[in-house]
Design brief:
Blueprint: E1 3-8, E2 11-15, H1 18-28, H2 35-55, H3 59-68, E3 77-81, H4 89-98, E4 103-106, H5 110-122, E5 127-130, H6 136-147, E6 152-155, H7 163-169, E7 176-179, H8 184-187, H9 199-206, E8 210-215, H10 220-231, E9 236-239, E10 247-253, H11 257-267, E11 272-275, H12 279-293, E12 298-301, H13 307-319, E13 324-327, E14 342-345, H14 352-359, E15 369-375, H15 377-383, H16 393-400, H17 405-412, H18 424-430, H19 440-450, H20 457-476, H21 483-495, E16 499-502, E17 509-512
Parallel strand pairs: 3-8, 3-9, 4-6, 4-7, 5-6, 7-8, 10-15, 11-13, 11-14, 12-13, 14-15
Antiparallel strand pairs: 1-2, 16-17
């Protein structure tokens, strides 16, 4: 029977286990745990109690117990899928305070480890960090802290490949290994982070009672790969509802993407993140925004910055109420800025999982946030090269669907059917009177289609240059378009087959083709 635990006049917490609720409140000030958090934490603690129980049994008693409890083979081995912002950190921090030995947490990024250690130390969790390049004295101090009661060990996969370190870690009595952002096992392990493929051996070497892999996004394919590498294919999966209802999904069509971003910076709510595919694009985008809206409006962030620069920019953006951060995916995992209102993607993420992960940076305070993907004809060609059933092809389906964008993403995760709480397509069906607006390349296509064999490339570029700057003066009060921008629009229309140059009677004149039309 559930019991209401009264901690103070303001906090009534409904828990099946008072100990978990009291620990959450006294150490983190958390008055309420989501049911999924409660379940995951209870699973960890229950698995540890099971481990202690079978340690007291004979081999025959363990055999008989497992026959009667057929699901016990994966007890203590679980993969947890919680949406971004659902508070998965508490799922290993609360048990760390209750277990009678340290918890090892594996993180993908050094910056994330540093940030998490700072947050833990601000609370009541004492922790140590193991990373590459540490001296023997630094390692010795860490192990001394563990002997004196430090509850958390932070590490990345690469440092755990050190045999000497593993041998020492075996002696400290680790009770729980938590792998955060576990989708990286599949995403990175087969490419540039082979250390992830060795985590199964690390787990086998340390042999803790409980192992939990956490991720916000994983397709069935990724889930299977993670399970195989970490648990030899035998793991209990805990999946909460995957849909973040407060994230509303939009796609903006644009060939000249950076110009479209300027309109979004003007019209959408801040704070805003603009995810860019490369370091150079992040820097260029920030410069264009500052040139349009004033110095200091935007800053850029990527892995090539010095630590002091990253710290400065992280602090600036964390405290900002109207800033725009142009970033690569280096700014993403574990970010705890809760009030981001708009997440824009200059380029599509590689997979639907990555897109959901990055879009999930918005609205972590529970408020509505927009996730806007800028999609070009060139993107359509590039992503059209993938097999239609591949994880990468899901991004093309998301961008070009006529149904519901939210459901496309959920389908890519193998998740539930959901009533859409907000995407541009479902919104337009509910408000059919809204006038359709055309993107830069759609406007160019329509102009050529209405006047076949009238414009040369040079003619259409001049016409578009005038039209586009007329629009920008109305919205931004300045000319932002350059001839290179409109040349890029025409080039993409030609590449994708929307228009062609007539080499017959109307030589060098542009014509819209019958193969691709906007009505399709």
């Amino acid at each position: 029977m559930e019991e209401v635990l009264k901690i103070d006049e303001d906090a009534e917490i409904l828990y099946a286990d008072n100990l978990i609720g009291r620990t959450a409140y006294e150490n983190f000030g958390i008055k309420y745990l989501f049911p999924w958090q409660q379940m995951v934490i209870s699973n960890i603690l229950e698995a540890y109690e099971y481990h202690k129980m079978i340690c007291k049994m004979t081999a025959q008693q363990v055999l008989e117990f497992n026959k009667e409890n057929t699901d016990s083979f994966c007890l203590g081995r679980q993969i947890v899928l919680l949406p971004t912002g659902a508070g998965k950190s508490l799922c290993f921090q609360i048990p760390a305070l209750l277990l009678d030995g340290p918890t090892l947490i594996v993180y993908p990024l050094l910056a994330l480890m540093t940030d998490q250690q700072r947050r833990m130390e601000e609370g009541s969790l004492r922790s140590v960090t193991f990373r590459g390049g540490q001296t023997l004295e630094e390692r010795r101090v860490n192990f001394e802290k563990l002997k004196n009661g430090a509850k958390i060990i932070l590490a990345n996969p690469e440092v755990l490949a050190c045999e000497d370190l593993l041998e020492e870690l075996k002696t400290v009595g680790i009770k729980h290994i938590a792998i955060d952002e576990a989708h990286c096992v599949s995403e990175w392990g087969d490419s540039f982070r082979p250390g992830y493929l060795q985590l199964g051996k690390v787990i086998e070497k340390i042999n803790p009672p409980v192992i939990t892999a956490f991720t916000a996004t994983a397709s069935p394919e990724v889930l299977s790969r993670v399970s195989q590498i970490l648990f030899n294919g035998e793991a209990h999966v805990v999946r909460s509802e995957s849909d973040r209802k407060n994230i509303h999904y939009f796609v903006k069509k644009a060939a000249a993407k950076k110009k479209e971003i300027l309109y979004l910076v003007k019209n959408e709510l801040h704070p805003m993140i603009v995810f860019c595919g490369t370091r150079t694009k992040a820097e260029d985008m920030a410069r264009e925004i500052n040139a349009c809206f004033g110095k200091g409006t935007a800053k850029f962030y990527h892995a090539g910055l010095e630590k002091s620069e990253k710290d400065f920019i992280e602090k600036w953006f964390y405290e900002s109420k109207d800033g725009v951060l142009c970033a690569t995916c280096a700014y993403g995992m574990g970010v705890d800025k809760k009030d981001i209102k708009t997440v824009v993607h200059l380029e599509p993420s590689a997979t639907a999982e990555a897109y959901i992960q990055e879009a999930g940076r918005g609205g972590r305070d529970g408020s509505v946030a927009k996730a806007i993907l800028v999609w070009s004809p060139e993107d359509s060609v590039n992503f059209g090269k993938y097999d239609s059933n591949s994880r990468q092809a899901a991004m093309k389906k998301f961008a070009e669907t006529k149904d519901c964008r939210r459901q496309v993403l959920l389908d890519a995760l193998g998740a539930e059917q959901a009533v859409c709480s907000g995407c541009d397509l479902c919104n337009s069906r509910n408000s059919p009177e809204k006038k359709k607006s055309y993107s830069d390349w759609e406007s160019a296509y329509r102009l050529i289609k209405r006047h076949p064999h009238f414009y040369t490339e040079q003619d259409i570029e001049m016409k578009l240059f005038e039209n586009m700057n007329k629009k920008s003066r109305a919205i931004l009060h300045k000319n932002i378009w350059e001839h290179g921008d409109v040349q890029n629009i025409i080039a993409q229309l030609k590449e994708t087959g929307f228009v062609r140059i007539d080499n017959g009677l109307w030589k060098n004149r542009l014509v819209a083709t019958g193969e691709n039309t906007l009505e399709k």
